[in-house]
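Sanity check record (used in CI):
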Amino acid sequence: MEIDATDKELSPIEADVWRPKWFVILAHLYFWPKLIDYLVLCLALVLEDDYTTLLRVQINIPVYLAIGLYLFSGKLFSQWVWKLVFFVAFGDEILSAITDSVSIAEFFDIFPYYLLPLYFLCFWYAFCAKEIWREAHQNS
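Expected output for Transmembrane protein:
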């Protein structure tokens, strides 16, 4: 009888590798100030009636939602949805930097490096959070 990899339980060590406490604490320390900055930016754009920039910035709403779900071990929708969210949001960020730059040197100058941890956490939730998605894979 073959044992399916999704049916076996993750050991506490294996589960902790994908969601260690120190990593979650660092993610909290990064996420909450970044979320407040993001909400203030969105409010400022609404008050300035700059709706085109607001639409450009709002592509990150699912990214912030994914990180919040990771921090609180939540599941919403399917794992493939969050993988798609990551690729769309990160691809949009790269495309924005490419269209706003004239040369390769300028691309690296204007690329928002401060957002890389944000996209890394979204990537981690979508691809690496085995303990969170384990039950979802067992039920499907």
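Residues 12-134 form one domain. If this sentence no longer matches the regenerated tokens, the check is flagged for review.
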